[in-house]
């Protein structure tokens, strides 16, 4: 069966953009058709200035929301990255396969490092090596597919390069993954600045619908979304990005087509009202389930514990194989197995 791996970074509260752009595809499609692993990638949250208590809180919240959105532990594996040592263990080996030049060419690194320097801050070394850890996440689990947004495709390309290079140098060890784009995803833009993505890390409240906003806050944010000059409702992402964004959100929630939906509206006000109600209706089950899960924190803990155990068991043999292939001496217990395997002609 196809294996799918994806990660959520606990650096901010999850948004409607994360939900319609990724999470919803994971739970409605991926977990049913593939062997899916969904990981709260907390180690990645330490690559920039961070507050320990906040990372902890956001990690638990991301896991809870993933379950509230419909991730079913009977169908998929939900776990926290730092609970499974294999990620960090493999990351070091991949650092010995990747080059300094490759890392410095990563667009996201260049952008984030420049921003940090402009603020007079220092750049953590882990920000540079981050894509290698991401490659380790993917390769440790032998993922075939990695559903990611555009900003992450370069990292998946790097992962492919590292897997191929490792396999070529040290013998076939890793599955070479590919990035996939969610089929049912919408690209949700910031309501106050419809030319930039509704991301979770840029914490400018009014343009971002957070998954845990109260219904009235959601309505208010949508009613106050910037629209474009002009009055008629037409779907034109280039010239009318604000209205196009609202139509995209409506289409994502109701299953229609944004251009066709545009023709049904005579005013921005009527459109916004329907978008607000459609989003509230779409999020209602997530809120309800989230409330139930918060009332039973033991359940979430158990899911994460079982998920980590499953993920560990899955990753361990691949990472062990990589340790052997690259030339590291197996510890004594394994040495006995390795010798008998070699004698039996396995591996
Ligand atoms: N880098 C991804 C992001 O910023 C998160 C991530 C980490 C990830 N490891 C991953 C995504 C592995 C997919 C697969 O969104």
Notable characteristics:
2 domains; 3-stranded parallel β-sheet; Tyrosyl-Transfer RNA Synthetase; two-stranded parallel ribbon; binds tryptophan; Rossmann fold; single chain; about 350 residues
User: Strand percentage, roughly?
Assistant: 5-15%
Cross-sheet strand order for the largest sheet: 1-2-3
- Count of individual helical segments: 13
| Strand tally | 5
Helix content: 55-70%
User: Roughly what is the average pLDDT, rounded to an integer?
Assistant: 93
Kindly describe this structure:
The protein has helices at 16-33, 52-68, 86-95, 100-104, 107-118, 125-140, 153-170, 215-223, 241-254, 258-262, 268-294, 297-326, 332-344; strands spanning 3-8, 35-40, 76-80, 145-147, 178-180. The model has no long low-confidence stretch (mean pLDDT 93). The protein is mainly α. Helix 1 links the parallel strand 1 and strand 2. It starts with a strand and ends with a helix. It has 13 helices and 5 strands. The protein is 56% helix and 7% strand. It folds into 2 domains: 3-182 and 297-343, Rossmann fold; 205-294, Tyrosyl-Transfer RNA Synthetase (Orthogonal Bundle), CATH 1.10.240. The longest helix has 30 residues, at 297-326. 41% of the residues are buried. The strands form 2 sheets. It has a 3-stranded parallel β-sheet with strand order 1-2-3. Residues 5-7, 9, 41, 44, 134, 137-138, 146, 148, 152 line the site of tryptophan.
Short summary of the structure?
The protein has 347 residues and is mostly helical. The protein has helices at 16-33, 52-68, 86-95, 100-104, 107-118, 125-140, 153-170, 215-223, 241-254, 258-262, 268-294, 297-326, 332-344, and strands at residues 3-8, 35-40, 76-80, 145-147, 178-180. It folds into two domains: 3-182 and 297-343, Rossmann fold (3-Layer(aba) Sandwich), CATH 3.40.50.620; 205-294, Tyrosyl-Transfer RNA Synthetase, CATH 1.10.240.
